[in-house]
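Team,

Forwarding the record for the chain on the shared tracking sheet. I've put the sequence and predicted structure together so nobody has to dig through attachments.
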Amino acid sequence: MFADRARIFVRSGKGGDGHVSFRHEKFVPAGGPDGGDGGRGGDVRFVVDEGLNTLIDYRNTRKYKAGDGEPGGKKNCRGKDGKDITLKVPPGTVIREAQSGQVIMDMSGDNREFVILKGGRGGSGNQHYATSTMQAPMYAQPGKPAKELELLLELKVIADVGLVGLPNVGKSTFLARVTNARPKIANYHFTTLNPNLGVVDLDGGKGFVIADIPGLIEGASEGVGLGHEFLRHIERTKVIIHIVDAAGTEGRDPLEDIRTINQELAAYNPDIAKRPQVIAANKIDAIYDRETSALAAIKAEFEPKGIAVFPISAVSGEGVRELLYHVSGMLEEIGNETTVFESEYRPEEHAVNTDEPYTVNYDQENDEYVVEGPGVEKMLGYTNLDSEKGFSFFQRFLKTSGILDELEKLGIKDGDTVRLYGHSFDYYK
């Protein structure tokens, strides 16, 4: 099964906590602090793997977590860093924040590797807090928390040329004739269920990558049929080959067919509808009088608009060579730069701390504000509040963690009481 979308969770590693310890050696009765630093948490990174062409692996496994850093130890031993995790994706994968849909990174062009979440920094051991006045600090720094994001991975194939047209107009037959692709060909409503890619090689001309975009019918841009699932694959193409059944073998009007597809492209993305287009009037081997057929009407309507019309037969090959060289010339004029979607979302500004660090509530019965949470409790366990430096460290924690902001939102005033796990303080701004 072709998989071009996946929803996953990623989590970086938590930084290891700093350690509190003191030297205890023979003949050194008052050894100084020797608590080691915690290790760095692991990063989450994406890399492009040219050997991949689907996102099927991410349909089976949804959660990915980097390793946590180990806590520091005695004798200034630093904790081991957490293991990074590398997620491989096919070229053309767009990484989005799942809730907003905003682009984080487009793994195309020069974007081959990307660190999406950095691991938490390891906490400093108590050896760093010794001063001339505080020679035995009883506190160390906790490791920075992990971060997590919910992501939407979306594969938009990288092709120079996109084939569009209603079902059964001969797109798959055309692709099979001009490239090394071998699409399944049959006569039913959705001939192609996967975007088929092929490489066109031209003698004396520059080759290009061509993609058969499946599922286009009336209403495709609104999700009818499979159209909405596959229209994204045309967003990178520079030129559109619009294939139409010029013979009307299924009783449809070729002109109406062209208008229908162009309306669907414009409804999905107006920029796509404005891209250079060439019309391949297919199945001319089934037309007996080309001067009075729909082929003449197609030329009369679109050639004055600057859209070239090429009568072709995908079955016999008639007219195909001329069409391909014309498209190659169009691509030469446009240039070879891959369309890369700009980043709209910065994970480091929005990623969620996975350690729920605190809750702030007002206790009406006791007329005091209560701050609780594993992050707060851990910080108090490492901090000597009786020392000036320890209390200063505690105040910085309240500010940088956002606790002071939350207290102010609840309406705290100077002189009000704040309680944290058995410790009570008077609040002064």
